[in-house]
Amino acid sequence: MTGTVPPLTIAPTRPGGREAADASLVTTSTRAVSRAWESFAAGEDIETGVRPEILASWYRCRDRYEVDRTLDVAPGARGDDAQQNDNGVIFTVLGGLGALAGQQVERDGAVVTVTDGDGRVLGAWGDPAAQRRAELHNLAPWSSWSEANTGTNGMGTALELSGPVTVTGPEHWCEAFHQWSCAGISIRDVVTGSPVASINVSRWNASLSEFVPVWLTKAVACVEQEIYRRAVYEADKVISEFTRKCAQSSGPVMAMDRGGKVIAANGEAVTLLGLTGETPLLAGAIEPAERWVPDISGLPDVVRWAKDRARGTAQWSGFACLPVSPGEEATPLTMRPVVDSGHVVGMLCVIGVQDGEPYDRGMEADVGLIPRRVIGTRNDRLVLLAPSEIRYAEADRNTVWLITDRGRVQAATRGLENVERLLISSGFRRVHRRFLVNLRRVAELERGIKGELFLIMDSRSHDLVPVSRRHAPELRRLLGV
């Protein structure tokens, strides 16, 4: 580990030790951000003057999480230790990295912290004086620094985004933290894409070197090796259980990882799902990049529900009825967990079988309120959109593009599934694995040469949105055609 990650340098190289390296955070740029913060905190909606990722965070803190901007002490974290138990090896590697980095930054008056995926601080290392100052704000183990609890900050905001995040001075949502400079990065599960942990560097009343985000990126790459090894190990366990199940059953069966991606499928399932006979799923996709995302509406919610209900018990089973084959009625899918050391590492899905606890769609339909605005970014500016302005959303891997009345805008929220959850209560529906449309904005329907269905969202631009065969019947029902 030490040979992979270079030493951490957090301060500009200047002669004279800490005093010479320190520089006040009060600069021309921070004054401008401070003025923007005062306007925004007073209730104004602004679109410029602050970096887009910071302004998007401010909107989350003010409008979604309703974080008190006068908060000066982070609240204590909940006592649930489920994440720590499930990711113990990862936290061990990350803790060793944090301790090593803490020794390296001690002379520069900084603190290195590690959190779990919920923003709960697990450890802090660094300059003792800086740690005592940080503890005045409860920047210490077992405190919660998620955005939902403590506003914009290096740890919490990193958990909301991919890649390194810097939060300097008045970019923090809570005024009491305006004299801190922070840089953080999240470590994400390669299977689910959700944050597992974060590592952060904080410094009082002084800037951080531009090399800190680079160091954080390399540190994460080191930890992600453990995550990748775990993903491969889990896939091997799931495929072994899948092979055993297929020997007992002649019907269609597929095996999924914890994120709902298909790792393996037998010949009957491959045919039913319309896949080619040469798919790597027949042999089993050990590599995460080779796994298949099924275009079955509602399946991700069912997998999450089953994982939660199983609670590490291999004997549990549950079923849901979903439209598996295009143009056909909903088919029962029975979910059976694959468990290793008390943790669900995957799911076996037996198609056409109804067994166990029935899926309650109401339990998973927590779509929240219709959003006041949807936040996007374009040319380093934040774009505030009403849901009615958005015609459709298109996914490019984990990046989502919103096609709107004001042009093409990148969504601040990553992942089409997350954007779908945000907009489903505003009349948006998935019509393809890459497209989400505003049903109120569908202008025309067009058939292709081979009977394919396309949506025309604007008759002037004639933009075509493809509809997958799987989603076509439900779409026709919703549109009344």
In short:
This protein is globular. The chain is α+β, with helices and mostly antiparallel strands and 481 residues long.
Write the CATH homologous superfamily of the largest domain: GAF domain
Q: Which CATH class of the largest domain?
A: Alpha Beta
Unreliable runs: 13-22, 81-85, 363-370
* First-residue to last-residue Cα separation: 60 Å
Number of domains: 3
Mean pLDDT: 87
Largest β-sheet summary:
7 strands, antiparallel
List the helices and strands and how they pair.
Elements: H1 18-21, H2 28-41, H3 52-64, H4 82-86, H5 88-105, E1 110-116, E2 121-126, H6 128-135, H7 147-150, H8 154-160, E3 165-168, E4 180-188, E5 195-204, H9 212-248, E6 253-257, E7 262-265, H10 267-272, H11 299-310, E8 318-322, E9 331-340, E10 343-351, E11 357-358, H12 361-364, E12 374-378, E13 381-385, E14 390-396, E15 399-404, E16 407-411, H13 416-423, E17 428-432, E18 435-438, E19 444-447, E20 453-456, E21 464-467, H14 472-479
